[in-house]
Amino acid sequence: MKKQSLEKRLNQVANEVRKLIIEVACRSKSPHVGPSLSCVDLIVSLYFYELNIDEKNWKNRDIFILSKAHAAMALYAVLALKGIISRKIFDSYFQNNGTLPAHLDRFAGRGIEVSCGSLGHGFNMALGMAYGYKLKKDKRRVFVLIGDGESQEGSVWEGALFAAKLGIANLTAIMDYNNLQGYGRPTEICHFEPVVDKWKAFGWEPYRANGHNFTQIINAFKKPHYGKPKIIIADTQKGKGVSFMENNLKWHYYIVTDEIREKAMQDLCGDIHEEYSN
Amino acid sequence: MIFMRNTVINKITAVAKENKNIFVIAGDAGFGVLDEFQKNFPARFLNLGVAEQNTISFSAGLALVGYKVFVYNIIPFVMFRCYEQVRNDICYQRLPVTLVGIGSGVTYAPQGMTHYSVEDVAIARTLPNLTILSPCDPQEAEKCAEYAIKNNGPVYIRVAKSGEPTVHQSKIKSIANPIIVKEGHGVAVLFYGSVGVEVIKAVQDLKKLPWVISIPKLQPLNFDFLLKKLKGVHTLITVEEHFVDGGLGSIIGDWLARDRLSFKLKKLGIKNEFIHAIKNNAGMRKHYGIAADNIKIAIREAFRNG
Q: At residue A4, does pLDDT exceed 90?
């Protein structure tokens, strides 16, 4: 596929995912729309480009763990578009007697690799899985998406400190750095920066990318591991794709009403974002 | 003297040659205990250092790719410090990870409260899918290790510190159900773990003998099996080196209430308080009324009031 058309296609898929998120958030009246929208482009890049994930070879698929599992709507929407879970199951999200909870339960649906919801767990399970595959000489790779707020968890740094020594070059962590957590900005709440230097000092191979630019995301996937675990620090915007939600803390919590949905859909159904259209 | 912790690890080491999925994780503890496993199976051994949260989640990750993981550490570092990791990553996901916790009760006395494990059963009881095993002597410890090796879900084995004398004089077949240690009548002493030796001492020279029943498997507890063994019994005495409220006494109390059973219940255990007393293990048992003499008094009282 040509570079231009790949980007265009990923952008179209991401737009569809965002529409699904708004629809399902409105139907369920569940929060966490903003943090779901910020990581859409990252998850789409994984499932529609980077991951070896093939129905015919399901047992050898690459693993993706959504450690910031409050963004589960983004994962569910991608799994539904990819056909890994059915639309019926997707539509039952957050409903009484439904199938999919707001945070991940690995017994709830296909393609949900681990149960997650409390921050600072999925990252460490990913390390264990990657090390396990390495020992078993299994070619499967492990990708894990963490939040920037999540990166304040001590467990993340416990894991980071040990990972480099384990030589898990089959592991890629991605930080959804939207710089808006539950009640403020990481860069204001704590001494968050220089975040790339921190991971480098812990023995990781860090790369920084614009988390809404598919060329940059894919280039970061292609960067070598040099025998180390890799982390992609992806600069993103909370609420990305819906103009009035972008970079706005309240969309960590606010509910999508019918009226909000209409307005959001006008943004999402419009032309493909300018930055990708030329 | 045989150590329960060695018994458990030796069993795991013996099986690891055949079972290539057995993996042992240490948390910067296990000096002299894990050496043999580490020497024979270096690829399936990791010391994840002083990082208990990562240790548990990492173990869950290994289990997710097919390993049968044993995590070895003192009890506070497999159950307290990392409770949420045990809850979400191991128990919620029903993974084959066994937590081998050392230093049950006040066997570490006088190391101080931070090192005691007098509420771990109460905490572990809140975790569905978790099998809780607390052996009273090396023979039970070996059976617990066998049970954990065969089990496909989460297991917690709590063992004492070191040097536990034998409680069972004859061979035991399994720890899956309560085990009759001595036959008696009227009164039944129910216990688990390291305090078993005090119970045996207590009944040594009694004229009226109570039933003595070891309950190494606390969760799930086979109540139907236990009830069948309690024919003609009017009083139950629970003895534990654990907080008196929250452990076996509470498990039995809940059962009696749930099934509307009319046994009298006397609970012997450590008062639910932070321990400031400086005493060794034996002194601490006397201090909290779970030594052989205290148990003897409780048995005699139970016979008198029966």
A: no
pLDDT of residue B30: 86
Token pair recorded at residue A236: 């993103």
Boundaries of every domain in chain B:
4-159, 179-305
Q: Domains along chain A?
A: 3-277 (3.40.50.970)
CB contact under 8 A, A106 and B51: no
Q: Binning pLDDT at 50, 70 and 90, where does residue B31 land?
A: confident
Which residue in the set A106, A123, A158 is minimally distant from B93, CB to CB?
Answer: A106
Nearest CB to A128 within list B43, B53, B58: B58
- Tell me what ipTM this predicted complex has: 0.96
User: What is the average pLDDT value for chain A, to the nearest integer?
Assistant: 95
User: How far is the C-alpha of A60 from the C-alpha of A58, rounded, in Å?
Assistant: 5
Query: What pLDDT band is residue A3 in, cutting at 50, 70 and 90?
Result: low
**Span A30-60, pLDDT tens digits:** 999 999 999 999 999 999 999 999 999 999 9
DSSP 8-state code for residue A20: H
Query: What 3-state class would DSSP assign to A174?
Result: strand
Q: With an 8 Å Cβ cutoff, are B62 and A136 in contact? A: no
Kindly report the nearest CA distance between residue A158 and chain B, in angstroms. Answer: 6
List Cα–Cα distances, A225 to A62, A173, B18, B50, in angstroms.
17, 12, 35, 27
Residues 10-49 of B with CB under 8 A from A: 43-44, 46, 48-49
**B51 — contact with chain A (CB < 8 Å)?**
yes
**Does residue A87 surpass a pLDDT of 70?**
yes
- B220 CB neighbour count, 10 Å cutoff: 11
* For helices B4-16 and B138-150, angle between their N-to-C axes, nearest 10 degrees: 40
For residues B181 and A247, give the distance between their C-alpha atoms in angstroms, rounded to a whole number: 68
The torsion region of residue B130 among left (phi > 0), alpha (psi -120 to 50) and beta comes to beta
Res. B161 pLDDT band, cuts 50 70 90: confident
| Token pair 């994962």: residue | A75
Binary contact (B60, A125; C-beta < 8 A):
yes
Chain-chain contact of A118 with B44 (C-beta, under 8 angstroms): no
Asked if residue B216 has a cis previous peptide bond (ω within 30° of 0), the answer is no
Q: What's the CA gap between A64 and A43, in Å, rounded?
A: 9
Confidence of residue B162 (pLDDT cuts 50, 70, 90): confident
User: What are the tens digits of pLDDT across the range B121-144?
Assistant: 999 999 999 999 999 999 999 999
Residue A278 clears pLDDT 80, i.e. is over it: no
Superfamily covering domain B4-159: Thiamin diphosphate (ThDP)-binding fold, Pyr/PP domains (3.40.50.970)
Does A162 sit within 8 Å of B61, measured CB to CB? no
State whether A129 and B85 contact (CB < 8 Å).
no
Q: Nearest Cβ partner of A135 from B43, B48, B54?
A: B43
Whether B4-159 and B179-305 share one fold: the answer is yes
Mean pLDDT of the A96-116 span: 97
CATH class name, domain B179-305? alpha beta
Between CA B287 and CA B273 the distance in angstroms is 13
Q: Phi/psi at B222 (nearest 5 deg)?
A: -80, 90
